[in-house]
Structure formats: C-alpha cells, structure tokens
Amino acid sequence: MKILTRLAVLVALAFSLAQPSFAQTAAPAPKTGAMPADDMAKKAKAKECSAKADAQGLHGKARKEFREKCKKS
C-alpha cells in the first residue's frame, strides 16, 4: 500500500510540473517598422562593395579585406 501511495503522489507531481510546458505562448508580433535610413545606407554600401569585389574576381581573405576597406571609404 505504501508503494501505491508514493507512486500516486509521484504521478500527480509529474503531471502538475509538466503542464506549464504544454502551454501555448503568444506568437511574436510582426515587424511593421521600416528599416532606419542609416541601416539602409550601410546595406546599400555593402552591396556596392560586394559588386565591385565580384567584378575584380576576389575570393576569400582578399575579398574580405577589400570589402572592409571599401565600406570604410
């Protein structure tokens, strides 16, 4: 009888602890704001530098260094 009581308590405890993990969370709110102008300018500059690196046929470390210098200038 003692074992059945302990088992029942253990099962009840397991169910009570497991229920919060099944709760649904709210979906994240969709982004409605536009990208800040500064970020847009940086993105455009990065694309421009990538296009220049492509035109020169750069790859690997040389491409990375070229893009870093290009974006800073």
Explain how this protein is built.
The chain is mainly alpha-helical and 73 residues long. It has a domain at 36-73. The protein is built from three helices and no strands. Helix 2 packs across helix 3 (60-72). It is elongated. The mean pLDDT is 85.
What descriptors fit this protein?
mainly alpha; single chain; elongated; 73 residues
Order of helices and strands: HHH
The biggest sheet amounts to: none
The radius of gyration computed from the alpha-carbon positions, rounded to a whole number of angstroms, is: 29 Å
Judged by helices, strands and strand pairing, the structural class is mainly alpha
Share of β-strand residues: under 5%
The total beta strand count reads 0
Average residue-wise pLDDT? 85
Shape: elongated
Q: Enumerate the spans where pLDDT stays under 50 for 5 or more consecutive residues.
A: none
Q: State the helix count.
A: 3
Distance between the termini: 81 Å
Helix fraction?
55-70%
Write the layout of secondary structure elements.
Layout: H1 2-18, H2 37-56, H3 60-72
Helix pairs in contact: 2-3
Q: What is the compact description of this entry?
A:
The chain has 73 residues and is mainly alpha-helical.
